[in-house]
Design goal:
single chain, alpha/beta, Rossmann fold, 2 domains, five-stranded parallel beta sheet, 9 strands, binds N-carbamoyl-L-aspartate
């Protein structure tokens, strides 16, 4: 019996995975990263990844595509709905059914909560949720946790600050659900209108020590990790509300100088004005490393979903 709980499985919510599953994928990521290209290229040979992106993406789509290529497979897909039959009015259901005919695994990003779960009910092949509205982005959280593990050598015992748009940022929810498996202090920093959605963290809040602030200065000297997020302009029902909170936080040299010397600054990217370019060259800025780990983790994930006993 294989202990690979990812084989042939949909990746819809990080809540569907145990701590053991997460640690299994982290160790698979370490193993796959150490393989030679010709060894890696066994896991996806002859297989096709189909992506469907109803929303913009840079890292998620490219890292999945690059990961699939490193496994010897190919990727096909839609990243500009206007160039596909979606523009003619084709439904999500028919688009998924069609991609299911042409691929072995589907990576979906869609503006509606629940979209990936819905797709998984229609598709015979596994669905990977690459962002469902403001609900979840589970593979981002897996790579975020992997990044923390690699950079800090542990997750337990850390004080993790999450700053920015905690209301609409889907990466925040998946990250919190993932962190609920560990013993961490979570410090949430946001304007009052962008606080975490209570109902969404209901089932994990008992497992985490959560503290909330509106100013980062109130907690800065405690933080081992600062996870910065973009204010999600496109998800505001009223753009005047966005204008009020836009530019509220910027992690810059002055903030960094008051933080712990070894603090790690993370960001799922894209960054707009919430991280000053002046800190990009510091040892604390690990957001590009995080994007690089993303390709490695997604390679391991694809290898595990596509093969019963890959590594
Ligand atoms: C994020 C997303 O799409 O949720 N991007 C990503 O996948 N790394 C974050 C964002 O758009 O702000």
């Amino acid at each position: 019996m294989s202990n690979n709980h990812f084989y042939n499985r949909d990746i819809i919510s990080i809540k569907d995975f145990t701590k053991e599953d997460l640690e299994f994928i982290f160790s698979a990521t370490n193993k796959i990263s150490s393989l030679r290209p010709n060894e890696k290229s066994e896991f996806g040979k002859g297989r096709t990844l189909g992506y469907i992106f109803y929303e913009p993406s840079t890292r998620t789509r490219m890292s999945f595509e690059s990961a699939m290529a490193s496994l010897g497979g190919i990727s096909i897909g839609i990243f500009d709905p206007k160039s596909s039959s979606i523009e003619k009015g084709e439904s999500l259901a028919d688009t998924i059914r069609t991609m299911d005919l042409y691929s072995d695994i589907i990576v979906l990003r869609h503006p509606l909560d629940g979209s990936s779960r819905f797709a998984s009910e229609l598709s015979n092949n596994p669905i990977i949720n690459a962002g469902s509205g403001s609900e979840e982005h589970p593979t981002q959280a897996m790579l975020d946790l992997y990044t923390i593990m690699k950079e800090k050598n542990k997750i337990d015992g850390l004080s993790i600050g999450v700053i920015g748009d905690l209301k609409y940022g889907r990466t925040v929810y998946s990250l919190l659900y993932g962190l609920a498996n560990y013993n961490v202090d979570i410090h949430l920093i946001s304007p009052s209108t962008l606080r975490i959605r209570r109902e969404s963290i209901y089932d994990v809040q008992d497992k985490l020590n959560i503290y909330e602030y509106s100013q980062i200065e109130d907690v800065l000297d405690k933080l081992d990790v600062i996870y910065v997020t973009r204010i999600q302009r496109e998800r505001f029902p009223d753009l005047q509300e966005y204008e009020k909170v836009k530019g509220t936080y910027t992690i810059d040299d002055s903030i960094l100088s008051k933080a712990k010397p070894n603090v790690s600054i993370m960001h799922p990217m894209p960054r707009t004005e919430e991280i000053s370019h002046s800190i990009d060259g510091t040892k604390n800025a690990i957001y590009f490393k995080q994007a690089a780990y993303g390709k490695e983790l997604r390679s391991a994930l694809l290898a595990l979903v596509l093969n019963e006993n890959p590594i």
